[in-house]
Known about the structure:
A: mainly alpha; 0% strand; B: Dipeptide-binding Protein, domain 1; Dipeptide-binding Protein, domain 3; eleven-stranded mixed β-sheet; 17 helices
Amino acid sequence: MIRLVLRRVLAAIPTLLVIITLSFFMLRAAPGGPFTEARRLPPQVLANLERMYHLNEPVWEQYGRYLTHILRGDFGPSYVYRSTTVNALIEQGLPVDLTIGGLALALALLIGMPLGILAALRQNTAWDYVSMAGAMAGISVPTFVVAPLMILLLAVKAHWLPAGSWSNGAPDHLVLPVLALALPLIAYVARIMRGSMVEVLNSPYIRTARAKGLPERTVILRHALKPALMPLISFLGPAVVNTLTGSIVVEEIFGLPGIGRFFVDGALNRDYTLVMGVTILYAMLIIAFNLIADLLYGVLDPRARQQ
Amino acid sequence: MRGPRLRSLVVMIAAALLSACSSAAGYHGGPVYRYVVSDRPAPPALQVLRRRVAETPRTLDPSLAADVPSTDVIEDLFEGLVTLSAGGKIIPGVASSWSISPDGRTYIFHLRPAARWSNGKPVTAADFVYAWRREVDPDTAAQYAQSLARIVNAQAIIDGKRPPDSLGVTALGAHTLEVRLVGRTPYFLSMLFNVYYMPLYPPAIRRWGMAWTRPGHLVSDGAFYLAAWVINGHLTLKKNPYYWDAAHVRLREEIFYPVPSASSALSRYLAGDLDFVGTPAFPPSDVGWLRRDLGSQVRVTPMYGTAYLGMLVHEQPFNNRDLRLALTMSLDRRVLDEKLMQGMDMPAHSLFPPLPGFTRRSPAWAHWPMARRLAVARRLYRAAGYSKAHPLRVKLLYMTEGVHTRNYMEAVATMWHQALGADIVLWQEQWKVMLQDIQYKNAKLFWSAWVGNYPSPYTFAHQFVKGFVMNYGGYDNPAYQAAVKAAVAEPNRARRYALYAKADAILNHDAPLIPLYFYNSNELVKPYVAGIEPNVLNVHLARYMWIRQHTLRQP
C-alpha cells in the first residue's frame, strides 16, 4: 500500500511538470496579453508593467522563475486583480467550492444510494421505473437550465430563498446552489448503485447466502453492499474533482466567489498566474482523488490489494 | 478616458450568454413585489443599500484602478479635489475653492480643513502630492498614468527620464495645493474627480504594501470606508463618520454584489436581493415587459458614449472617401435602434454624443429620407468602383461576447448587402484577440466604442487625433487636429464648443468612422431608493442615496 502511494506520488511529478509546462507556454501563445485593453497602453507604461511582472525577460527565464516560485508554494501576483496574490485568491475561493461541493456530494450519497438500492431490490416495479426515469432526467437536464428554473420558482416567484450571492455561507444562500449541483450527482449515484446492486444480487455467492437461509437484511447489508460499492468508488474519485471544477456554472449563476470563476475570468483576461495557479490546483486535486479512490478500492477489495 | 467601461459592458453582455437561459426560462409578467413608499427616510438601522456592481472590482487602489467596477467602488470610498453632484455636475470636493492663473497653467486649490481620513487624521495637500507622484512613478506601473500628462514633467517621469518628485505639484501649506500644467487645459477641473486624481493615505501604503487595500488596512477620505471584501462575493462599505459632509450622508451601509450577467442581476433584483442595479441591468429584449410590470423602476437615460465602426483609412478599400460615405449613409439606424435595441439607444450619425450646451453637427444626409440617402449611397458606391459584378468584399471584426452585438452586426451586414450589394464577412473574435488584431492593424473594418469619463467633447475628439494611442484607424487630417488644438486652448466655453462642433463637422465630411448609436444606460431602481439621478457620466455616488420608509405589499 505504501509502495503504491509512493509510486503514484512519484509518477505525479512528471505529470504535473508536463501540465505546468504546456499551460505556461500555451497561455503565452494566446493572442492578447494581460494588459491588452480597449485603450492601448502607451509603450512606456506597458514597459513599466512588463518590467514589474518580469514579462520583459526571455520566456525561458520566466518559466524558470515560475518553477522556482511554485516550488516554494508561491503562485505569484495576479496580473488582473492587481492588489492581490493568486495564493490569496485561491485561499478565499477554495473553501466556497469545498463547501458547496462537499454538501452536494453528501446529499448525492445520502439520497442517491438508498434510491439505487431500493430500485435494485424492487427491480422492474413502478418504484424502479419512476426513480430511474427521474435519475435519467437529472442527468440529462443541464445545470444551466435547472438552476435558473429554481431561481425563477423559488426566489423570483415565491420569494422563499435568495436568488444568489454567498453571504459568508449563510444556510439560506446555500440551498439553491447545493441543490443545483447535487441533482445530477444524485442521479448518477442512484443509477450506478442500482446497476451494480442488480449485478451483485444475481451473482452466485448471493444465491449461496440466500440458500444458507440468511435473512434478506443480512444478505443485502453484509454480503451485497460492499462489492456493489466498488463501481461507485471508482466513480466518486473523478466525481469529487468534477464537482469542484464543474461548479463554475453554478458559481456563475448564483454569483458565488469560488475559484471556478477565477479560472474562466482569468483565461478571458489573460491573467497568466491566476490561470496557472488554478490549473495546478485542479491537476493536483485530480491526481489526489484518483489515488484516494484506488486506495479505497484496495481497502474494499482484497484482490485489488494483491495486484 | 475610460476604455474599460466598454470592456466591462462587453464582458457583462458576455456573461449574459451564460445565463441567458434565465430569461429563456420565461419570467414574463405575473406577480412582482409592490411597495408602499413614503417620503420619509427609513430608520437609520434600515439605511442599507444593496447594489449590483458589473464585475468584481480588480483593485481598490485608486492609482491602479482601470476598470469600471473598481472605479464605481472607489468613488464611494475616496474623494478628490472635486467631486460630482447627484446629477453629474462637477462640484467642490476636498477642495472648497480654487483659483486659476490668467494663462490657465497654474491652479491653486484650497483644501477643506474639515476633510478627514477614515481614521480621523486630516487630509492634507501632501496626501495629494504623494498620490499623484505615485501614479506617474514607473515603479507603480499605473495603466492610467498618462491621464496626468497635462501636469508639468508627468510624461518625463512616466518615461523614466525624471524622478517622481519633479512632478509639477506642490503642497504650499497643509491645505494649499499648487498644480502646474504644461498648457491651458479647460477640461482639467472636470478630470479631477477621476480615481487617479484622488488622494492617498501614505502611512497605510508604507505599512501594508500591496495589501493596503484589504479591509482594516484601507484608509479612505470619502463618505464611506471599506468594511469587508470577498473577491467575487461582496464588498461592504460603511459610513465614514469622519467624512467632512457626514451630516448629510444617510446610508449606514452600502453592499456591492458583483453580478456580471444582466439576466442574473435582473432575477436577483426581482427576487428582492438587490435595491439598485446599474447599467446594463437587463437585456434590451426584456425592456417591454419590464416597463409594463415595473413601471418607473426601469430607468433608461442618456450616457456619454458612442458605438461606431472604425476603419483603416489609409489602406484599401477604406482609403476611398466615397466608399466610406456610401457605407455610413446606407445604414438605417432608426430601424436598427427600434428593431434590435428596442429603442434603448439613440441612433448616432456623428461621433460626439449630446452634452448640455454642446450642439452636435449631424451630417446633412442624416435628415434626408431613406430613399434619397440610398440613391446617393449607391452612386457613391459606384463612383468608388464597385458594382454588382464587382462588389465590395470585406471582413467586419467584432467580439464574441454579447448576443446584441452579433445581432446588430448581422443586421448591418444585411443592410449593406441589400442597399449596395456589398459582401460583408462577419468575423467574431474573443475580446482580447479582437483588441490585439485592431491594435496591430490586422482588421480593416472593426467594432469600436467610446464612453467618456469626464464631461468634455475633448474625450471624444482625442480619439481621432493623429498619434493618439486609440486612433486605430490612423485618421490624420491637419484641419481636424487644428480645430481640436484650438478648442483645447480656448478658455471661453461657447467658443470652445463651437470649435469642437467644427471638428465634428470635419469628421462628418471625412467619414473616418461609421457612427452607430449613442449609449443609454438602463437601470433598475426600487421605488424606495432615493437620491439616484440620471447623469451622462453614469456615476451614482452613494453619498446622495437613502432608503425611504416602505412596506411590502405581497401580490
